[in-house]
Design brief:
- The chain has 355 residues and is an alpha/beta fold.
- It has two domains: 166 residues, Rossmann fold (3-Layer(aba) Sandwich); 155 residues, Rossmann fold.
- 39% of the residues lie in helices and 17% in strands.
- Strands 3-2-1-4-5-6-7 form a seven-stranded parallel sheet, sandwiched between helices. A six-stranded parallel sheet has the order 10-9-8-11-12-13, with helices on both faces.
Length: 355
């Protein structure tokens, strides 16, 4: 069987890129496929996350293109690549690209799987993402979601003809080690955008700094994005440091006493899987979708109603005041990460691809 994953590009430090690389590497390691391809719309430098050398990498364009403006060429080039390489299954990474990739393969006999990386209700204001989901629901053979909750959203809003399957992202290997009880670092990471809700986190942090239980704790935010200047202004005068995103974030997780996720919406946040694998207790908004399927309330972290800034602050403060509770949640986080390890998730992908 020849399998191809189609993605916009693989060269950024993002959850979608990391998840795609992990699945492709897992499939390559498991063996049994005649060929595995990674087809990028445009290249963006070398992969940030190492890619198995057995995976054939190619691209459609040499420079950035508009998905709508270049629709005919995107469809034609995708179809040509699939036919020339006799691809049996095309996995379309991120539903926006179903807009051209799914119609492009009509009549070819190639199976089309669309892999959703957000949730059905999350469009980031992009109509083409909503249109891509409608096309995927109607014309693709399969749609893969990251959460069971998202399957319900697709069924409620799109009435899909496609077969719906939930396959979560792969967590990093569970790290052995002793939880650093003396750490007073609260870590957050992600793109500095409205989606990630760092403005809400900073509002909650202002409440933490006004409470004696938060004494000595500091907040470290790792990320880049369009809201950096506004967030730095909001954080002025507080015990907050905003640093650039980096591939080697492992050192930050290993030194963190707590991880916080303030997102307004998600798919299945990779950072929460990373936190679990490092045994870092979590406080997260129970947003649509993802945190509720990773964080085990009271066993690996604390879930707060979406947008409840005061509740988020109290979630942090409660853990800050309870070193034994943090250590207990750390142990539970590592147990939770075990459900998302590579072999189990790759087995689910193989079952889908080979069906």
């Amino acid at each position: 069987m020849r399998v191809c994953f189609l993605i916009f590009h693989i060269g950024e430090l993002g959850g979608t890129e990391r998840a795609t690389t992990a699945v492709l590497n897992g499939l390559a390691a498991s063996g049994g496929y005649e060929a595995l391809h990674l087809l990028e719309v445009v290249p963006c430098g070398p992969p940030v996350f190492p890619l198995d050398p057995a995976i054939q990498r190619a691209h459609l364009f040499d420079r950035h293109v508009s998905l709508l403006g270049a629709w005919p060429r995107l469809a034609a080039l995708t179809r040509r690549y699939v036919l020339e390489h006799r691809i049996d299954v095309l996995v379309v990474v991120e539903s926006t690209h179903a807009l051209y990739a799914v119609p492009a393969l009509m009549g070819t006999g190639t199976r089309r799987i669309v892999w959703e990386h957000f949730n059905f209700l999350a469009t980031n204001g992009k109509r083409k993402r909503a249109w891509g989901r409608r096309i995927a629901a109607r014309f693709a053979e399969d749609v893969v979601t990251l959460t069971e909750r998202d399957i319900a959203l697709w069924r409620d809003h799109a009435r899909p003809h496609a077969t719906m399957t939930c396959i979560p992202n792969i967590a990093p290997p569970v790290r052995e080690g002793v939880y650093p009880r003396e750490s007073r670092v609260v870590l957050a990471a992600g793109r500095l955008s409205a989606q990630k809700g760092f403005d809400l986190l900073l509002r909650a942090w202002a409440l933490v700094e006004g409470d004696a239980r938060g004494a000595g704790w500091r907040l470290l935010i790792a990320g880049d994005g369009e809201e950096r200047e506004a967030l730095e202004h909001q954080a002025s005068g507080m015990r907050v440091e905003i640093v650039a995103a980096r591939a080697g974030i492992e050192a930050l997780f290993s030194e963190a006493g707590m991880y916080v996720c303030s997102s307004r919406f998600e798919g299945l946040p990779m950072v929460l899987l990373e936190a679990a694998s490092f045994g870092v207790p979590v406080v997260a908004f129970d947003c649509e979708t993802g945190p509720g399927e990773i964080v085990a309330e009271g066993r690996s972290g604390v879930l707060v109603p979406p947008g409840d800034v005061a509740g988020f602050a109290e979630g942090m403060l409660g853990l800050m005041a309870d070193a034994e509770g943090r250590a207990r949640l750390s142990r539970g986080a590592r147990v939770r990460a075990g459900a998302f390890q590579r072999d189990a998730i790759v087995a689910r992908w193989r079952a889908l691809l080979d069906a």
